Hints:
Blueprint: H1 9-23, H2 30-37, H3 42-47, H4 51-71, H5 80-94, H6 96-104, H7 113-116, H8 123-133, H9 137-159, H10 167-189
Helix pairs in contact: 1-2, 1-4, 1-6, 4-5, 4-6, 5-6, 5-9, 5-10, 6-9, 8-9, 9-10
Amino acid sequence: MPPKAKISKDMVVVAAFEVARKTGGEHINARTVSKKLNCSTQPVMYHFATIEELKKTVYEKAGEYHTEYLMNIPDTQENIMLGIGLNYIRFAVEEPNLFCFLFQSGFVVENSLLEMIESEELTPVISVMREAMNMGLEQSKEVFVTLALFVHGYASLIANNSLEYDERLVTTQLKRVYAGAILAIEGEVK
């Protein structure tokens, strides 16, 4: 008789990530994860002392997935910042449960948007912005805050089924917000 397959910590995280993706982060528990793995709850609890610890690990994995998604901008996209903004909104369309888990579940490490722009996780986005806009760090952060408020509002409405996604409308509005934010910053610099 061959030995039973062992359930690794990574397997538990991947299964819990899929639970969050399909039904929401609030549904991550020993039973749902073990059912996904087709095993007892023992391997889940062996690798994670608490479900809270597992959720935090899945939250980090979801955050990495989200960052990769944001930065996957088509070559045809003329403006990289518009591409990132559209990807943020598309993420809410395509992955509403992960969006809600990341941004509406209380697992956010940062306490405010202003604290978030100082986080390491946002460094790649801010760096791309600086390069694309040819602006200083502080000006790029100001533009980011304006865009973030707009795209997060749109994405939240979509993820919570309060608004239908219309890419043409979103693109038009996002271009206006982006142009307005840059004009406001440039006006302050002069």
